[in-house]
Amino acid sequence: MPTGKLNTFVLLPVFSAFFAMSVRAEPVCNVDDAQRLFAQQPRPIAEVQAMLSACEAAGSTDYRVYMFQGVMNREAGDREGAIAPLEKAHQLAPDEANPALELGFTLEEKHARQAAKVYQEVLARNPSSKAALLGMGRIYRGWNDLDQATAIYEQLLKANPQDTDALNGMAWVALARRNRTEGQAGFEKVLSIDPNNEEAHIGLSKAPDVYRYVFEGSGTLVSTSSGTSWGFGGDGLIGVTAFDTIELGEYHYTNELQTLTAIGVAVLPSDDIRAGYHRLVPLTYAFSVVYDYRGHNGLPTENWLDALGTVYVTDNFRLFGGYRQAWGAFQWNGRLIRGGFSASLSPSWEVSAAAYDAAQAIFSNYFDIWSWVFDAYWHGPHNALVNAGVGYSPLIDNVDLHGRAILPVTERIAVQFTVGHNSINADTRATVGLRFNW
Questions:
Q1: Contact 137/146 with Cβ under 8 angstroms?
Q2: Residue 192 shares a structural domain with residue 223
Q3: pTM, to two decimals
Q4: Domain termination site, one of 159, 181, 209
């Protein structure tokens, strides 16, 4: 046999086998196989993705293709990228619960209103859908609508008093209402039923940071170019509801020094008595109104009324503004306007920038003193806080340096340090105190 023919006969089967192997290596659209592989642990991600891509390329209308794609995107950390395939899955099978529930869960973090709409569609078809009810419970908690969230968890517990998901939800609501004891008891009950329940373990780790009452006692040293003064007193915060707090405080100074800072001329009062109201709805808005009675020896009584409001533009970006009016005598009359923003860079770090406009009757007949202040904050466990900032007032060439630290000693006691220095008038202040919360 000629050599050329021999080579052909020898190589032809090899090429045929290689071609057959290549064809078999191409992924084939088989949604049932993809579902079987999707359910495996650990999941063969590359293989499932290849099969789903083949189905998509073939124009599959099986909702499972897009539901699996969306879930895998979400689990890979691409929550926004998971939305489009899950929406398509929901559109292909609007009456199926699973794609709707996966879509709702994916939307919860940043698109709560859309998620609520999806869950409500599920509940319209099946009012007892536990997954949809729990989703709405989480959304109501995120909106701080604690009564609605409580009603959902009570409904689930009526059907099953040992429902650990509902018990966890009730414990989170208790913490949101500042009831640490009830919240801890709720999570501990879950762990008595399911010792490995991860959510309950997380809840117990967060519980020590929750409190209803705060008392701060401190001592202050104020030093200026005209002398020094010692101060001492305390401030109390009373949590009336989950969102509302009353403030009461009193501070006494031994020497009524005149100070000049970025926010204007002020004289340390012999007695400073404060009463205030604060409302904070997390991730939505906050405002406060505080009245200061500032009593002096040999000088007219002074009054301050201060209002401050904050609006959450996003979960991590806030705008704030405030107004303070002072009155009582010509030497006290004046106002302070401020505004700025704060941004959370991470769970631990936050920055803020603010502008201040101070004007007083005794300072060139309400001439404006503008100031700019920048701050950085670090938030640690158990309400630990470290803050450092700098400010500048061009008109009076004043540099303001300030810092603050709250360092927990135990779950309920923390040491506080505050220091500030204004270059004008060599105004330096240092405060040391204790904070108690319970």
A1: no
A2: no
A3: 0.75
A4: 209
